[in-house]
Amino acid sequence: MNGEVRQWVRTARHIVLLSGAGMSAESGVPTFRDTQTGLWANFRPEQLATEAAYRSDPAMVWDWYQVRRDSIAKVQPNPGHRAVAAFQRRHPGRLTVVTQNVDGLHQRAGSPGVLALHGNIAEDRWLDAPRACCDASRLRDGRPPACSACGNLRRPAVVWFGEMLPAAELEAAEAAAQTCDLMLVVGTSGVVYPAAGLARATAGRVVVINPEPSALDDAGDAVLRGTAATMLPELLAG
Ligand code: OAD
Description:
This protein is α/β, with parallel strands linked by helices. It has helices at residues 3-11, 45-48, 51-56, 58-73, 79-90, 105-109, 167-179, 197-201, 228-235; strands at 15-19, 95-99, 115-116, 119-126, 139-140, 146-147, 154-158, 182-186, 205-209, 222-224.
């Protein structure tokens, strides 16, 4: 472990931790771009994780998300998630988690105020703007459930291809990135924007933590070749 990076953590006034799928790999959640076992093996995300796909075959896409929800409900936060949450408890207000992950594991580890840029797979929202009759506590059962009066469908509260990121989360993440003095970029391939752009927009130091090369290595003041669950407990021990 790079002693200089530990020193940066100790002295930083505000740290942003930007996480991607690799953050949850050691919890048993597959990453996206692993071609053998990845989340998108046997699945064409550009064709299915879109609003158009949902409207044309809602049951099929809903069922795919149900399978993922069931498997994520069975996994646990790993020592990396727990080290982040413990640091936040010891140092209130000093670390902001910005995540591309929809698995909710940072939140389940106890991290407060997580900025979930791509939504949360455990939650639903309305497909069309809700009308007066749309009441999430009185749904017509189905795949997917719907408003019993007008038929408006529920959908997973995740960001699909071609959709905007949630504006409030993105604005808060941009503000945190611009003002932090240290950004830890953990477990992301760094190829999906605007999330990856946060690491290029910060005036602070950037530390990349990833066992493999990533597209953000060139933005790193330091690149640590290790995993989230092994590096973060050591780095955030103070
Ligand atoms: P990727 O699957 O693209 O990248 C995962 C990264 O984690 C890779 O760089 C791996 O080398 C690294 N990695 C693997 N195991 C690790 C470990 N134990 N510790 C640390 N790093 C590890 O996932 P993301 O970068 O998160 O968006 O993908 C970004 C976005 O692409 C996703 O949020 C998703 C997708 O389009 C949406 O769904 C909107």
